[in-house]
Amino acid sequence: MTSTSSVPAIAVRGLRKSFKGTVVLDGIGLDVDEGTIFALLGPNGAGKTTVVRILSTLIGADGGEVRVAGHDLAGEPDSIRAAIGVTGQFSAVDNLLTGEENLVLMAHLHHLDRAAGRRRVAELLDQFDLVEAARKPAATYSGGMRRRLDLAMTLIGDPRVIFLDEPTTGLDPRSRRMMWQTIRRLVAGGVTIFLTTQYLDEADELADRIAVLDHGKLVAVGTAEELKRGIPGGHVRLQFGDGAGLDAAARALGEVSRDDEALTLQVPSDGNVAALRALLDRLELAGVEVDGLSLHTPDLDDVFFALTGHPTETTEAHQ
Amino acid sequence: MTDAITMVRRNFTHTLRNPGAMIMTIGMPLVLLLVFVGVFGGALNVGIGPAQHSGSYIDYVVPGILLMTVGYGGTTTAMAVNRDMTAGIISRFRTMAISRTSVLTGHVVGSVIRTLVGTGLVIGVAVLLGFRPAGDPVQWLATIGLIALLALALTWLAVGVGLLAKTAEGTAPFTLVVQLLPFLSSAFVPPDSMSGAVRWFAAHEPFTPIIDSLRGLLLGTPIGDSGVAAVAWCVGLALAGYLWARALFRRDPS
């Protein structure tokens, strides 16, 4: 966030959308400051893609006010289109064209002159590690390569605001990390990024601010720290060899949740090392033998459970 | 305008990259030409008789085969448009500040040119098989014009089908129609030789005046009022197809 950007890159008020009588977005409001990364977090079917489709002018909204890059969505969609780039589940590459031809096509559609277009294409091929595959049809690309080409195509027009709809879903860990690096580099260059993800760690890793979407409503908005604070999902799981050990440990630690069958205790923890050491010290003082220990950090399920009172898998059943 | 040219260029590259589209456009019509000329030709020549048509059967059947070529050209267009829709590249184009319908224009122009090349190849093969066109240069120009107009009409309809279909298989009804209608027209035998409702249908469906006009123009015989009917059908279908495709394209993508 910079003090000069008084107008947010994306401003949404009361956004509504229904499909055939089913409410998909039920009054969304959010602001994204220029030059920041905003993550929209939620399970499948929460409405994340619908938000991106509306903000990127692909489909209309039923109600609400949206401004992207300072332009009104209803009044000047073409001004928005000129300022944004979209890469996502629904965005795609042209399979019959080579990687290079795909980029040249984008250069033409952005009306870059010949020399500038060629320069930009070469730059992006290099930047996205596609030089070797440049002359091969996109149909032959791996998932990671397609995603890189897709994003490279989006960047041809130097967009000020980029929408990334689940940019790393289905990618292997290495490609995922490369994508994260690219996103960070873009933001360092002053671009605003609006991304959707199902992964808390991705939002945590990248986003300046995170909004959690559930059943078409934002149930929380804040920094990763703010969201994870107080989420009861993080815990240390202690495994004991017998019931006596379990009893002794439970006495020593006080209020903890125990599982007599599995012979385990769950102690709330935010992963703090000092607190962990103190916990083990207390057990040693009490003379309890611990068979095993594992650390669980809060995941999306925990965040969801904490924010909505129901786990992600059963969102439909609870409705 | 620049965007439309870019999209036409994209379509040409697709055709070069994907020779299957051209093979599909001319393959089936050529097979039918061989079957009807080689297998049924002798019998049909006798059956149709000199009163209906002078000359060999191949001269009678080629115009219908050309129409089928245009129809199959439309089929490949429907599938190409559908591929663009389902693969999501059209969604990308829609979020860019480019001329809205340029991608459709690219398909239509590319398809009409591809179809004209295809019909040219079919005419070439037909000549090798004994087809003897007798039209003068003006009639040849009119032939090309009518085929182009027909291609435009069927292509816009095909674009609509491609936009409407949820999968490539969904374009099958279009293929069926362009395959079936020529048989229920004057393409292979004169409607006069048909019976009952089929005869009435064949005499009144759009392909019959178009085929009759093409036949007259190619063979240098009078076409009567079928020329007016042919142009009217083509213009009407082109306009309907264009308006339909435009309306479908303006919908929010699902």
TrEMBL record, chain A:
Question: Biological process GO terms, please?
Answer: daunorubicin transport; doxorubicin transport; response to antibiotic
Q: Which domain of life is it from?
A: Bacteria
Q: Which subcellular locations apply to this protein?
A: Cell membrane
* Topology with respect to the bilayer: Peripheral membrane protein
Give the chief site where it resides. membrane
Q: What InterPro entries does this protein's entry cite?
A: AAA+_ATPase, ABC_transporter-like_ATP-bd, ABC_transporter-like_CS, ABC_transporter_ATP-binding, DrrA, P-loop_NTPase
A single GO molecular function term of this UniProt record: ATP binding
Instruction: Reply yes or no: does the keyword Membrane apply.
Output: yes
User: Which residue intervals define the domain ABC transporter in the entry?
Assistant: 10-240
One Gene Ontology cellular component term attached to this UniProt record is: plasma membrane
**PROSITE patterns this protein is in?**
ABC_TRANSPORTER_1 (PS00211), ABC_TRANSPORTER_2 (PS50893)
Any idea which UniProt keywords this protein has? Answer: Antibiotic resistance, ATP-binding, Cell membrane, Membrane, Nucleotide-binding, Translocase, Transport
Assigned protein family: Belongs to the ABC transporter superfamily. Drug exporter-1 (DrugE1) (TC 3.A.1.105) family.
Task: Please name the PANTHER family in this protein's record.
Answer: ABC TRANSPORTER ATP-BINDING PROTEIN, DOXORUBICIN RESISTANCE ATP-BINDING PROTEIN DRRA
> What is the protein's given name?
ATP-binding cassette domain-containing protein
Give the species: Solihabitans fulvus
TrEMBL record, chain B:
- Show the InterPro entries listed in the entry: ABC2_TM (IPR013525), ABC2_TM_bact-type (IPR047817), ABC_2_transport (IPR000412), Nod_factor_ABC_transporter (IPR051784)
Keyword annotations for this protein, in alphabetical order, are: Antibiotic resistance, Cell membrane, Membrane, Transmembrane, Transmembrane helix, Transport
List the GO terms this entry assigns under cellular component, sorted alphabetically. ATP-binding cassette (ABC) transporter complex
Residue stretches making up the ABC transmembrane type-2 domain? 20-252
Q: Which Pfam families match?
A: ABC2_membrane
Tell me which Gene Ontology terms the entry assigns under biological process. Answer: response to antibiotic
Location comes to: Cell membrane; Membrane
User: Where do the TM regions start and end?
Assistant: 21-48, 60-81, 102-128, 140-165, 172-189, 227-245
Membrane in keyword set: yes
GO MF terms listed in the record are:
ABC-type transporter activity
Membrane topology field: Multi-pass membrane protein
Family to which this protein belongs:
Belongs to the ABC-2 integral membrane protein family.
Q: What is this protein called?
A: Transport permease protein
Q: Which organism is it from?
A: Solihabitans fulvus
